[in-house]
Amino acid sequence: MNKTLKILLAVFFVIIIVFSCFALIENEKSKIPFDFDESLVSNSFNNAYMSGGDLAAVNGYLCFNYKAHNTDFTGLLNYGLYKIGGKGKSRIYWEGPNLWPYECLYTLQVYKDNLLFDEYYLYGDNTYTASGFNGNIYHINTDTGSIELFSTIKDAKKNKYEYYRAIDDKIYVFSKDKIYLSTDCENVEVIFDKLSDIKLEDAYVKDCYIYGNTLTYITRDGYVQMYDYVDKKILFNELFDLKDINAEYYYDIQNIVVCKDKIFFTVCTDNGFEIYNVSDGFKKIYTQLDISDYYCYKFTNCYDKYILVSSETGGIDLINTETEKITNIVKFGTDDVYVVGDKWIYYVDYKNNLHRVTYDGKIDEKIF
To answer: Are the C-beta atoms of 353 and 368 separated by less than 8 Å?
Structure first.
């Protein structure tokens, strides 16, 4: 071995040791300062119907998918899925040192105390293939960190599934034209067929909001509808005009939510977004300016009478849907927001640190 190669190897090992020291120091700084004894509220209040998330509560623990930025050197060793509980945390899954830890993306969902581990971006023999959802649902053992096949939804090839969502201990499976329901994580029944149930060939089925036994969605011909899939009837059906909601196209309308049986949606504009109370004559109740399209498409959560709005510039705003009062509870840039019961709101800041804040904004604790 020549001298140059020896020097390069020595430098490499020094770098690894330095990274490891930083990781250990960061881990020590992140001791959890409280006893975790809460549970996330229903996934349907946390936008799991759209894309799942990086936070889940299961078996008395809070599970957090920590995705360090590429510019964070400790992220090379620190990223991964962590279990938070008691007064500490432990990493239960990662894929080894990674120069691009932020790209290790997994969707967390919960089904009957099982943490479903959705490798959405990986094709192959797992959950998704190039043609969509193959019916296999995996979960991660929160004690051992092993990924195991949990169940297989039947007839995936015949029904051409695209993806699934776990909401309120039910599995909803989406295809191009239909929505299927599974209560045993194996067999399915059709609960919505946009061609036969509502005779709307162009309904935005994939963008619907699931609330109890209802599906709320927007049609391409300008209606907002709420459909009861148990009683097979439309409960809400209102026509709107794009020019009245400051929208150019129907796909500018995003993030439908239902709070206290009231329907709200977001309209993406050229330089921000607006929130409208659909149930009150499409009344505009909120405006956020100077943000990227990324936040327009992912920001809204709802719990009880509150709509939570997060943005890269405005922090977190809380909208009381009964009084329309807006309260800013976090002032710096945030990413994902999750609701945890009546006391705490959990959020991820722009550096991917996990915090919790009270509804009045007076207590804000960094926990990861």
So the answer is: yes
Per the domain annotation, does 9 fall within a domain?
no
How many domains does the chain fold into? 3
132 and 258 together in one domain: no
φ/ψ of 36, rounded to 5, equals -90, 115
From the list 48, 58, 104, 103, the residue with the least C-alpha distance to 81 is: 104
Phi, psi of 23 (to 5 degrees): -65, -45
147 and 61 in one domain? Answer: yes
Q: What is the distance between the alpha carbons of residues 330 and 340, in angstroms, rounded to a whole number?
A: 16
- Using CA atoms, how far apart are residues 68 and 232, in angstroms rounded to an integer? 45
In a domain, 209, yes or no: yes
**Same domain? 49 vs 173:** yes
Separation CA 252–CA 261 (nearest Å): 23
Token output for 151: 């169940």
Residue that the structure tokens 């009270």 belong to: 358
* 133 plus 147 within the same structural domain: yes
Characterize 332-347 residue by residue with b for buried, 16 or more Cβ atoms within 10 angstroms of its Cβ, and e for exposed.
Answer: ebbbbbbbbeeebbbb
Q: For residue 96, what are the domain limits?
A: 35-193
Neighbour-count burial of 1, counting CB atoms closer than 10 A to its CB (0-12 exposed, 13-18 middle, 19+ buried): exposed
Encoded tokens for 185: 């994580």
Query: What DSSP line would sit under 210-233, residue for residue?
Result: EETTEEEEE-TTSEEEEEETTTTE
pLDDT in tens, 273-306: 888 999 999 999 988 776 655 556 555 677 788 8
- Residues in the chain, pLDDT under 50: 22-34, 42-51, 120-125, 199-206
CB 203 within 8 A of CB 194: yes
Closest CA to 150 of 109, 121, 203: 109
Residue 296 identity (one-letter amino acid): C
- Per the CB < 8 A criterion, the answer to whether 345 and 316 are in contact is yes
- The CA distance from 276 to 256, in Å, is 10
DSSP sequence for 282-306: SEEEEEEES--HHHHTT--EEETTE
Token pair 């329907």 is found at 263
Looking at residue 334, its pLDDT comes to 73
